[in-house]
């Protein structure tokens, strides 16, 4: 088991940072009957899922950690079957309805209706005080279509007495206002470099490794404030021994994108654009999310770019990130951004030489 899973906190009192959020969750767990629907949002690796799991443990006890992986089949009104993987316990269910694609609306409605119509027998028979409702955890809710979000809003109102929803996503701006307004929003900010360093040192100590503070600080600065990524880096570095002057490894896909940034800055031509398209497609085939590809490419481009060009590049990056979210062919929009960057940079060079 990876360290990031093995040493993940399971109780609210074990959480290392964001004590104000922990206090709010403990207060909710002490009065489950008055707990509203919850909406956790914040950057990747900040600890949203960990806090959700700790809250479930506080609501239902150790039984919430007895998980199993199920695969369910849903039938749409057009008799099309949709298969969805989900994680379940006796008290809750966790799904990513965005995996259903255009049929996500039917999945959301059927799951919540099924959970809400069944009483929480395990909680009623429990010897400890637990929440009597069941919980549905919807992850990556920002991937839901507008139709699915509208259906979610109606379903939330209908089954509010027998079921609680916990929504989780990175960006709340992609979730419609009627859904957000029916939930208690809990923003989980990214941990600071010092907080990440402290967690890394604590994790290394639990694995009987000695982590120098300088190395912990280097990992914290290199992980983009993503704690999950920082712990994965630590585990990878521990295989070679944790020494004071040990460099932080860079993933292959990041080096690949860094080379793409160098190539398109060095040459702007149709041939280079075609070659870049193939490299982008290779990244997507290897399951690197298109938004991560775009953000990493922009970050690499901005390293050595003139200040006069940076606002335009960032503006067009935001434009094509929105296109990626709205469209279905990510490679088209990634290639379009590269072409736009080439045009901007070529014009910048031409204007620069025309002045001489």
Write the layout of secondary structure elements.
Elements: H1 3-6, H2 19-30, E1 38-41, H3 48-60, E2 68-75, E3 81-88, E4 92-95, H4 104-117, H5 121-124, E5 134-139, H6 146-158, E6 163-169, H7 177-180, E7 184-187, H8 193-206, H9 213-222, H10 227-238, H11 252-266, H12 270-285, H13 290-303, H14 310-326, H15 330-354
Parallel strand pairs: 1-6, 1-7, 4-5, 5-6
Antiparallel strand pairs: 2-3, 3-4
Helix pairs in contact: 2-3, 4-6, 8-9, 8-10, 9-10, 11-12, 11-13, 12-15, 13-14, 14-15
| Count of discrete structural domains | 3
Q: Measured on Cα atoms, how large is the radius of gyration?
A: 23 Å
Q: What percentage of the residues does DSSP assign to strands (E)?
A: 5-15%
The sequence of SSEs as H and E is HHEHEEEHHEHEHEHHHHHHHH
The CATH H-level superfamily of the largest domain is P-loop containing nucleotide triphosphate hydrolases
N/C terminus separation:
61 Å
In CATH, the architecture of the largest domain is 3-Layer(aba) Sandwich
Number of beta strands: 7
Oligomeric status: single chain
Q: Any low-confidence stretches, pLDDT <50, length ≥5?
A: none
CATH top level of the largest domain?
Answer: Alpha Beta
Q: Biggest sheet, in brief?
A: 7 strands, mixed
Average pLDDT figure: 85
Q: What structural class should be given to the helix and strand makeup?
A: alpha/beta
Count helical runs: 15
The helicity comes to: 40-55%
Shape: globular
What is the CATH topology classification name of the largest domain? Rossmann fold
